[in-house]
């Protein structure tokens, strides 16, 4: 395997007395398709935010392609190639699908300071391609506010890809998608070039095992296990939890009502 | 140093008097926003209502008139705050700007109605009997009324501090500034709290107006000047912070008085400079009482 | 030329718009015809109207540009400024001083006014922009009021509360424009250029980024934009265009009062933006026309109590035009996120 693209070491984040992410050390090799799984409250989304810079770490370091980015702001990290879809839809609701994607695409085409609309041709061309890829070519002119939940997730993916990321973080991209939409998403992600490293948080284990080349299991903010999909499937702890309580409660030793489903 | 102090003693005392007034005014503005998310831009206009009430009751002629002006102003303030609470209720789920625009409109209307009723001349009010003299302070003659203002400001600051830090009502105020959902989750009727808070906040404005009348008089445009100062105080101190309002009021009081006395040409720059300096170091004010909407 | 990405907000009604978005819009030909017709009517005003009316239309044009510059902030960027008249005033005083003491060459005075407006906005705006949220409202109000007071207290420069009067008439290529018609055409030309400039900014990728920040600042950050830079630049640009309008105003009415930089003027323009429809540029221009006409018509009968009417309209507009006002600025309620950031998957 090549050198790690994303390297977390001792990453910790506390909110008062609550430690949401606890001493996570993790290397994701360049080109990997890495899945993060674990029950709600395991700290997956918080970990993503620590990687993107939306949250600051309490301790530890985040390195991207060998460079320590712990002190960089979220936009600075984004400009180094980190891109994400968020667990909760985060789009520009009053604007059209195309305008949403274009906002991401225009950053990559160095045309954003131009006052001449023509110079945006490249960004617009890329936007068209991406919308065709995610299956929204027909909806380019529709305001995002008028889209279904599943379609919005597709826009999110197109926006994330329009950033031309080297590291793509997907937080439950298939949540709320129909089976057909989710199959299309898996197909799209499978066609991503090896230059894009993907880290995905997903509850739908079909999606996870269709994509992932490696899997990390998080539990209560800590890394329980990292391995390839077969190892994770073969692990007795995993199997017990998986077969015993069903998918949603995977690895959850106390699936009480206090753990509320989010997203 | 001591000589400089002596020379400027009157300015410094004036600064404290202005600071005391600004505190009374700003603490209302700050609590109303901190607890209820209402940015009341009519606060300055309410202040001016108080000043004109002092003119009406000829407050200077007798203590009776002065106290009557205070009482009526307090009542008017409470009612205005209650009305404002009702008017902002439909806007509660809308952006803060909507409420700001509403209170902006109210302040324009109130100020114009005042100028229609009282005309555009500067009206002066003399201090109540007994306080219209000068007192000797470290060799300088100083108006007794302003000394009383400083005292009133101190007493009020102490009272507000005691209420907020030591009573259950105060605990509710603090909780509400920190997290309003939590308070409504506790089963307290938010609407009643809102009427009370806006009433008291507006009352502080009208009362400050009466108290200020013997110093500033009453004139059109005073509302904007005073609102500007109150806003600066609140921004410097931190929205929703009572300590912040006190420190901010004392600082701006000195800037307004000592600053104007020493460097009259650039007083506006000093005011802005103070504001800028504080915000560079603390973007949310000295004592950020709450996370503002950003 | 591809026009697909033209933002929906830049509508075809803007007088200077050379092209129109394709989707869900009147056909381009119709838009072009309307634009040309509007231009023709505007250009013909001095030929058919008496000098007084020509003067009124001149002032409407100036305030239209002013309102559009405020819309760049309020409608496009979602930054509701309560002190925008400050930059208008800075521009007006600059143009007045330049033409009194140096040259009244029209282009020089208005360009100086625009530069002064932008510089003044840049010098103070970073405070308001950096603090954001409701602080932005309070700080723009405070900064505007400070400029207003400065205009009043620096009487050796600004003429204090008497105003800066005796401003010489505008010259073009050395010739003073004495007839209202010529002044009008000069104003029209500059306003059209200013509107074109604003429209270009709105239609550019920079304008798209501003709308992105208005709608969802957090997402823009994660896309690699630094919102502060964009907002700050928008603030300075808006100040520059307001200054340009102020410069025209000084040349047109030839007297500048502190109140031109004051709160009431700011409120008046905010009302124009609200009434016209924030974020459309042409809407606020139309709003400015209505506001100026109403003020001129009813102002005299109210014996100087115009702000009374202004205030009442504000109060009514907040309730009657909730969408217009709500679209003004997305001062999102950040409280829920602020309580426990990032713990959305923490145990309840």
UniProtKB/TrEMBL annotation, chain A:
<keyword id="KW-0067">ATP-binding</keyword>
<dbReference type="GO" id="GO:0005886">
    <property type="term" value="C:plasma membrane"/>
</dbReference>
<dbReference type="GO" id="GO:0042941">
    <property type="term" value="P:D-alanine transmembrane transport"/>
</dbReference>
<dbReference type="Pfam" id="PF00005">
    <property type="entry name" value="ABC_tran"/>
</dbReference>
<protein>
    <submittedName>
        <fullName>ABC transporter ATP-binding protein</fullName>
    </submittedName>
</protein>
<dbReference type="Pfam" id="PF12399">
    <property type="entry name" value="BCA_ABC_TP_C"/>
</dbReference>
<dbReference type="GO" id="GO:0015192">
    <property type="term" value="F:L-phenylalanine transmembrane transporter activity"/>
</dbReference>
<feature type="domain" description="ABC transporter">
    <location>
        <begin position="6"/>
        <end position="245"/>
    </location>
</feature>
<dbReference type="GO" id="GO:0005524">
    <property type="term" value="F:ATP binding"/>
</dbReference>
<dbReference type="GO" id="GO:1903805">
    <property type="term" value="P:L-valine import across plasma membrane"/>
</dbReference>
<keyword id="KW-0813">Transport</keyword>
<dbReference type="InterPro" id="IPR003439">
    <property type="entry name" value="ABC_transporter-like_ATP-bd"/>
</dbReference>
<keyword id="KW-0547">Nucleotide-binding</keyword>
<dbReference type="GO" id="GO:0015188">
    <property type="term" value="F:L-isoleucine transmembrane transporter activity"/>
</dbReference>
<dbReference type="InterPro" id="IPR051120">
    <property type="entry name" value="ABC_AA/LPS_Transport"/>
</dbReference>
UniProtKB/TrEMBL annotation, chain B:
<feature type="transmembrane region" description="Helical">
    <location>
        <begin position="144"/>
        <end position="164"/>
    </location>
</feature>
<feature type="transmembrane region" description="Helical">
    <location>
        <begin position="195"/>
        <end position="216"/>
    </location>
</feature>
<feature type="transmembrane region" description="Helical">
    <location>
        <begin position="65"/>
        <end position="84"/>
    </location>
</feature>
<keyword id="KW-0812">Transmembrane</keyword>
<feature type="transmembrane region" description="Helical">
    <location>
        <begin position="262"/>
        <end position="281"/>
    </location>
</feature>
<feature type="transmembrane region" description="Helical">
    <location>
        <begin position="12"/>
        <end position="34"/>
    </location>
</feature>
<dbReference type="GO" id="GO:0006865">
    <property type="term" value="P:amino acid transport"/>
</dbReference>
<keyword id="KW-0472">Membrane</keyword>
<dbReference type="GO" id="GO:0005886">
    <property type="term" value="C:plasma membrane"/>
</dbReference>
<keyword id="KW-0029">Amino-acid transport</keyword>
<protein>
    <submittedName>
        <fullName>Branched-chain amino acid ABC transporter permease</fullName>
    </submittedName>
</protein>
<feature type="transmembrane region" description="Helical">
    <location>
        <begin position="228"/>
        <end position="250"/>
    </location>
</feature>
<dbReference type="InterPro" id="IPR052157">
    <property type="entry name" value="BCAA_transport_permease"/>
</dbReference>
<keyword id="KW-0813">Transport</keyword>
<keyword id="KW-1133">Transmembrane helix</keyword>
Automatic annotation (TrEMBL), chain C:
<dbReference type="Pfam" id="PF02653">
    <property type="entry name" value="BPD_transp_2"/>
</dbReference>
<feature type="compositionally biased region" description="Low complexity">
    <location>
        <begin position="11"/>
        <end position="20"/>
    </location>
</feature>
<feature type="transmembrane region" description="Helical">
    <location>
        <begin position="110"/>
        <end position="129"/>
    </location>
</feature>
<keyword id="KW-0812">Transmembrane</keyword>
<protein>
    <submittedName>
        <fullName>Branched-chain amino acid ABC transporter permease</fullName>
    </submittedName>
</protein>
<keyword id="KW-1133">Transmembrane helix</keyword>
<feature type="transmembrane region" description="Helical">
    <location>
        <begin position="182"/>
        <end position="211"/>
    </location>
</feature>
<feature type="transmembrane region" description="Helical">
    <location>
        <begin position="29"/>
        <end position="48"/>
    </location>
</feature>
<keyword id="KW-0472">Membrane</keyword>
<feature type="transmembrane region" description="Helical">
    <location>
        <begin position="60"/>
        <end position="79"/>
    </location>
</feature>
<feature type="transmembrane region" description="Helical">
    <location>
        <begin position="232"/>
        <end position="256"/>
    </location>
</feature>
<dbReference type="InterPro" id="IPR043428">
    <property type="entry name" value="LivM-like"/>
</dbReference>
<keyword id="KW-1003">Cell membrane</keyword>
<feature type="transmembrane region" description="Helical">
    <location>
        <begin position="268"/>
        <end position="294"/>
    </location>
</feature>
<dbReference type="GO" id="GO:0005886">
    <property type="term" value="C:plasma membrane"/>
</dbReference>
